Amino acid sequence: MGTLRIYFTADDLGRVTLAAAPDPLWEVVLSRFRLRERPRPAFRLWVGDLRSRPERVARMREGAQLLDVLAPMSPYWPDFLTPPEASNGLDSGLESFLSTPRDRLSDELARLALHRRLPGWVSSVAAGDAGMMIRVAAAMRAYHDAAIAPYHSLIGTAVAADRAQRARDLLEGGTEGLFDGMAPLMRWRYPALDVTFGHDCELHLLGRGLRLVPSYFCQRVPVTLADPGLPPVLIYPIGQKYRWERAVDGRSVEALLGRTRAAVLRNLSTSATTSELARTLEISPASASRHATVLRDAGLIVTARDGPAVLHTITPLGKALLDGRILDRTT
């Protein structure tokens, strides 16, 4: 894990904006990442429902296959897939994608080729072939319509709750209060904002400001554009508790977490080490450690080293899930 260090000028502090909704093309790319992974508990409601609907899976198949090539889970994928115009809606974003200059397509795909071997059809995209570009845009639209649009309520409610908290932080504490509210993902020390990131890099805003965009499908760390010359944007994962508020509605803990993982969570009503969990539940220490990692990533437990041992403790969010309570969104 690395750090993205974003440098602000005095002008930039007054040009920090918070998007009203997720960016549809960023959500397309990031949701495909989530589907490639083993489903994490907070996304299981979405994944399970989607996979139970074969007609939706069929509609999104070509888009998923294209995204697996153009947006791999690697340190780089092309920025032209997520143009800033998509903040005005899917139609605007896809129109901008279709008008991407040929030299930019070629340059960004050449950079992608440094990270992985690309199939022959990508050369048509790099050349700006109109038919191929239209095909990619149509496939991305079909993917969005099948995998994201039907879950507008699930996604929209969670994102709105998170954004309401960020807006309160901004209103009460200014830009510094907004960034402080996003800890531990971000740490503000003028003139720089340190953001937990996939690798070490820097971004100088130079008076352009920064647009913060909440994302339902962004997980663990924020993401941004690879080209620092493009309009600065930071896509950040919404708070875990806002995903859980909808996920627990009408669903048992076992259905969301799995029987063993739910048992691990219940056994952390008092703190326990990995070895203690393994003995109590009669599972291997390696299995106990894997389950604890997933629960920690979901914000349900915290882990700290206690001498030679690793100690796990349930969080208020984890307790609320077990108790079937809805968290107070102001906390």
From TrEMBL:
SMART domains on file: HTH_ARSR (SM00418)
Domain of life: Bacteria
Pfam families cross-referenced by the UniProt entry: HTH_20
InterPro entries assigned: ArsR-like_HTH (IPR011991), HTH_ArsR_DNA-bd_dom (IPR001845), Metal_resp_trans_reg (IPR051011), WH-like_DNA-bd_sf (IPR036388), WH_DNA-bd_sf (IPR036390)
SUPFAM superfamilies named among the record's database cross-references: Winged helix' DNA-binding domain
Domain HTH arsR-type: 251-323
Keyword terms: DNA-binding, Transcription, Transcription regulation
Name by which UniProt lists this protein: Winged helix-turn-helix domain-containing protein
Matches recorded under Gene3D superfamilies: Winged helix-like DNA-binding domain superfamily/Winged helix DNA-binding domain (1.10.10.10)
Organism: Nonomuraea monospora
